[in-house]
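Ticket #213: bound-state structure for 2'-deoxycytidine-5'-monophosphate.
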Amino acid sequence: MNRPLTHKINVAIDGPAGAGKSTVARLVAEKLGYIYVDTGAMYRTVTLKALRDGADLKDAAALRRIAERLDIKLLPESGGQRVLMDGEDVTEKIRSAEVTAAVSTVASVPEVRRILVKLQQDMALRRGVVMDGRDIGTNVMPDAEVKVFMTASVRVRAERRWKEIRGQDPKATVESLMEAIERRDRADSERETSPLRRADDALLLDTSHISAE
Ligand code: DC
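RESOLUTION: The complex was predicted; output attached.
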């Protein structure tokens, strides 16, 4: 099929935490002049708001109300994006240990997912999007032209995470991070709504021993 050179496609990148999705998604978006959408950041933003409000994380209706009312903006900037929550810059705050520990619970609530998936689909409508997450190729953009499922060994993923956070959290060890990663993988893969799963038509990419470039 002949397509004009300006024809834009959508790229879906899924996989577990630490597989290198966001690094690669960012590089690809920059190269192509596409918009990078970090959907994990959206689940993290809802989680931060819920924690601040002292919401009961088991109360699906309360979480739905929070997600419905929340204004989440992803602002592209060179090399990444800034995240605004009701106008407040929360780019760094959504990476805290508290948010990271609670986000799987919030992301398992179907009502929250429905609201965020709709926002993500709206962003992808005009194409030219590189989106990373857990259910992008299977659920958010099943029609994406390119789908990649990235993975890496638990040890490699824990080592990457350790290098990222050792400055802020000197107590963190690769072993403790391996445990946390395995716990989160299990929660993300075993949840009922849109579990982490490779789409049948996604390329499988093991990044354990290859660089982002
Ligand atoms: O990629 P991340 O670590 O920032 O994702 C945070 C959490 O959100 C993680 O527990 C998985 C969940 N998530 C999800 O369920 N669906 C997505 N599309 C993206 C993230």
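RESOLUTION NOTES: Residues 17, 39-40, 43-44, 103-104, 107, 133-135, 184, 188 surround 2'-deoxycytidine-5'-monophosphate (CB under 6 Å).
TICKET STATUS: resolved
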